[in-house]
Amino acid sequence: MSKSGKTRRERRIVHAPSAVIDIGSNTVRLVIYEGSPRAPRVVWNEKVAARLGRDLSTTGEIPDAASDEAICALARFALLIEDLDIGDVQTVATAAARDASNGAEFLAKVADLGLEPRLLSGEDEAEAAALGTIGAFPGAHGVVADLGGGSLELVSVAEGASHDATSLPLGTLRLPALRAGSDKKFDKAVRGELGKAGWAAAHPGPLYMVGGTWRAFAAYAMRKRDFPLTDPHGFMLDTETADRLAAEAMGASPEKLAEMSGITSMRAGYLPDAAAMLRPLLDELQPEGLIFSSWGLREGLLFSRLDELQRTKDPLLAGVADFAEMHGASITHAAMLAAWSVELADGKGRSRGNERLRLASAQLAAAPHRVEPNLRYNHALEWALDKRWIGCDARARAMICAALIGSMGRSAIPDRLRSLASDDDLREAVTWGLGFKLARRLGAASRVSMISSALIRKKRRLILRLDPSRAALGNYPVTKDLEILANFLELEAKVKIGTVEPED
Fold first, then answer.
1. Does domain 123-299 have CATH number 3.60.21.10?
2. The CATH fold of domain 315-497
3. Cα–Cα distance between 332 and 324 in angstroms, integer?
4. Is the peptide bond before 117 cis (omega within 30 degrees of 0)?
């Protein structure tokens, strides 16, 4: 890498990378994060399905073969961390190491690798999952259901904090033994365990579904409903639909499930049992709905270390800023562009958080124009709809996508967006995008061109005011883009040099 290229890269990575090693009952995983602390970006994610907790229901021990496989993986992880010079590493162990009679012996082997494993209690595990949910969904109010290999953690969240928490022996590796008999006995056993968390039924709000098997169920539901997005994070289901789909999935063949996009063969094997458990879970807790989260324990560990100022940052804007800046689009420029195009904002939509979406769109819209023209449209669709954004629901994704499409001079809205947001929302977002394109055309979206011009929306006209020093900018093709935007708004386009007088 050239010296200048290295300098640009170092300038982008403001925060040092961090890593979490998660020694779970089912998998042993290394995740390395970079970017904004408020919306950390995964740059390495490696796991080994050692299944440390597979015999907890029978022998109560970690099998030697599973221990050896996990230690080999952890030795590799330790070397990767050393070679990448990552100083901020958290190594945590959960239910298998906690519940197994030889768990302490296993953790001693982990420590011999130079790692510093921290054994989480059931309450610690629930707290971390809750913080991950709070970080992913600001204002979360409900019950987190974190399903791992060894346990199911239930914890209430409200007002930015966790409250009641219960760890239940209902992990995916334990469910087959419980379900070996009749479905009636299985249902009774699950309800018996859920009775230990009686507080959960009284807590209002949705269930926040955390864990890979729940995300596999979300993928199943998304495919069954022809949902137009690919990322299960933020996907929502009403309880009636969730119960119906769970009834179907509990009898499905793992081989058939593994053929569905978003469901690995490992998760396909666990999904029928998890779906069978979901039905009494819904019946006992009576949640207002289900919300699926890609953030959980690992992200909760990172979130727990943030100060209050960092925690209050908008995760969508933090994530967009980190991503777009890698493509040469700065937040400073985006803020200026959002201010320049404020006349295009629909005042009625501001109470629904549209201003943050317009700012995110302004920054993200600048990024595709740093790549080849033939790649831009597909990049816009993928970045808006398929990339994982935190603090961004389906409606927000659709509006950002519509804005990016508008920024390329297009006003036709893809059908897949219409099931995610209203026509009014999409039309407003296209308006933003057409405004971004006009600003870019005006003076390559330079700072000088924006501070020496103004876009003014009147009852019957859309006026582009230019300072006399920039009068030469107000010619074709700027006039063409102004007319396109004005026509979309059913207004008359007008270029004025100097001060614009109010209409009579």
1. no
2. Hypothetical protein af1432 (1.10.3210)
3. 12
4. no
pLDDT of amino acid 273: 97
- pLDDT recorded at residue 500: 54
- Tell me the residue type at 296: G
Q: Where in the chain is the domain with CATH 1.10.3210.10?
A: 315-497
- Cβ neighbours for 342, distance < 8 A, ≥ 6 positions apart: none
DSSP, collapsed to helix, strand or coil, labels residue 179 as coil
Which single residue is written with the structure tokens 């039905």? 279
Q: Tokens 């009775």 correspond to what residue?
A: 195
**pLDDT for residue 352:** 59
DSSP string, 4-55: HHHHHHHHH--S--EEEEEE-SS-EEEEEEES-SSSPEEEEEEEE---TTTT
pLDDT value of position 344: 93
Residues 327, 404: contact at Cβ < 8 Å? Answer: no
- For 243-400, strand residue ranges (E) read 290-293
pLDDT at position 9 is 42
- pLDDT score for 36: 94
- CATH 3.30.420.150 segments of the chain: 123-299
pLDDT (0 to 100) of residue 373: 86
Rg (CA), the chain: 26
Distance of CA 169 to the CA centre of its chain: 28
Burial status of residue 119 (CB atoms within 10 A of its CB: 0-12, 13-18, 19 or more): middle
Contact 93, 117 (CB under 8 A): yes
Ranges under pLDDT 50 in the chain:
1-11, 13, 349-351, 503-504
- State the pLDDT at residue 370: 80
Single out the residue of 174, 121, 166 nearest to residue 148, CA to CA: 174
Residues facing 31 on adjacent strands: 20, 45
Phi, then psi, of 452 in degrees rounded to 5: -105, 20
The closest alpha carbon to 427, from 415, 412, 437, belongs to 412
What CATH number does domain 3-119 carry, 3.40.630.10, 1.10.10.10, 3.30.1490.20, 3.30.420.40? 3.30.420.40
The dihedrals phi and psi of 154, each to the nearest 5 degrees, come to -115, 130
Asked if residues 275 and 10 have their Cβ atoms less than 8 Å apart, the reply is: no
Amino acid 15: pLDDT: 78
β-sheet bridge partners, residue 496: 465
Q: What is the DSSP letter of 181?
A: S
Separation in Å, CA 365 to CA 164, 224, 446, 457, 495: 43, 32, 15, 22, 25
> Cα–Cα distance between 4 and 170 in angstroms, integer?
54
